[in-house]
Amino acid sequence: METRTLGQLTVSAQGLGCMGMSEFYGTGDQAEAERTIRRALDLGVTFLDTADMYGPFTNEQLVGRAIAGRRDEVVLATKFGVDRRDGGRAVDGRPDYVRHACDASLQRLGVDVIDLYYQHRVDTTVPVEDTWGALGELVAAGKIRHAGISEAAPETIRRAHAVQPVTAVQTEYSLWTRDPEDDGVLATCAELGIGFVAYSPIGRGFLSGQIRSVEDLAPDDFRRSNPRFQGEAFQQNLALVDRVREIADEKGVTATQLALAWVMAQGGRGSNPAVVPIPGTKRVAYLEENAAAADVRLTDEELRRLDEAAPVGAASGDRYPDMSGIHR
Length: 328
Hints:
The chain has helices at 30-42, 58-67, 95-109, 128-140, 154-163, 179-182, 185-192, 231-251, 255-265, 284-292, 300-309, and strands at residues 3-6, 9-12, 15-17, 47-49, 75-80, 82-83, 90-91, 114-119, 144-150, 166-172, 195-199, 275-277. Helix 1 packs across helix 2 (58-67), helix 4 (128-140) crosses helix 5 and helix 5 (154-163) packs parallel to helix 7. The protein is of the alpha/beta class.
C-alpha cells in the first residue's frame, strides 16, 4: 500500500481503527481481532489506532499482543485524556495525568515508544499549553515520537502547535460527516502543515448500506443511542446511503469501498492537507474489503456526483448523544 505523510510522520495511506474490537460495537472475538490486525500488517495497513479508554484499557493490550514480534512494521497511535479509571469517564489534560497515562499505555502495549500520541479530548479546565508542554517533555524523553489532537477547534490546534508541533489532527470525517470542510479544521491543518486522520470514514458502518434498521445492531451496540441511527433521522440518512450505493454499483465497487475512496481522495484536493482514513473493523473479511479501497480511483465526475449526493450538512442528527465535549 502507498504511504502518506502526516506532518513529519510517514504512514500507510489507510490505517486500522481498533476500538470496535474491544467495545462499543457489540461483542468482539479477540482471536479474530488479533488475526485482523496481523492480516492488516500483511496487506501494508500498518498505521494502527487505539486508545487507553477503549475497553477500557483492554484494547491496547490486544494490539500489543497482535504486533508482538512485528513492532518494526507498525506506526502505532494511541490516546490519552479520557480517564475511565474507577468506572468513571472524565476528560483530563493535567500534565501529571499525561505522564501517568503515557507510562501506562507503554506498559499495556508492550513497547518502548509510541509513534503518535493523541490528546483524545480537550480539557477546558486546563490550558492546552500546559497539556502540550507535557507532551513536549514526553517527546524529549523518547517516550513518544509525535503528538496529535482529536476533535479540537482551529484555535485550540493553533495554541497546541505553538508549544509542540501537532503532527496530526484526528476528527470524524466521511460522506455523512463533512464538518471539517466547513469549520476551519482542514484549512488550519493545511496552513500549519498538519496531517488529518479521519475516523469513522464509513459513517460508523452506516455508509456500507448493510444497516437498514436499528434492529440490525447488537443490543449493546452504542449506535442504538446515536441520534443519527434513530427515528426520522435514520430514514433520512438511509436516503443518503442509497444515493451513494447507486454510484458504487455503477462503478462496480462496494458502498464501503466508495466511501473510503472518497475520503482518501480528499487528501490534496484543493488546499486540503494529507488525509488518512482509519476504518475500524474486527473481522478479516471486512478488513480486506476496506484495504482494497486504496486501489479505487475516482474521476472528477464521480467526485462531483458524490458531492451532490452527500453535500456538507446532508446527514440528519448529531454525531453523538452528547456533543458538549466535541470541537473545543
